[in-house]
Specification:
The structure is a single chain. This protein is mainly alpha-helical and 132 residues long. The chain contains 3 helices and no strands. The longest helix has 50 residues. The N and C termini lie far apart (58 Å). It is found in: Membrane.
Amino acid sequence: MEIPPKSPDGSEKSPQSKGLIPSNTGSTLCMSSRSESMWTSASRSKWDIYHKPVIVVSVGAAIFLFGMVITSLSCFLPQNKDVYKMCGPAFLSLGLMLLVCGLVWIPIIRKKQKQRQKSQFLQSLKSFFFNR
């Protein structure tokens, strides 16, 4: 007959609790959350909110304009015409893709901001009525 091993601190554990790992997910949930602004009430500036889509739109517009220049070079310069005809549309499509992605991203962020404001308002109402 086997004797169950004792834990390092000397206390014996029941067979049910041997396989269980202690969990403190409640406290780590707030700390590991991706959006800390939901847990903190500090307001963010518009640049903090919209800087990523603005950068994507500006880079997309720059690549799109570069593609237009490269494509138009194939009309004016006879040497390397095949290279310009191949690279120009590639830059055009890449720039247009980034431009559209950034322009679609902005309304998505606005919608999330409105939902977050509603959620914070409802949370404050709930805490006002239930914490009395």
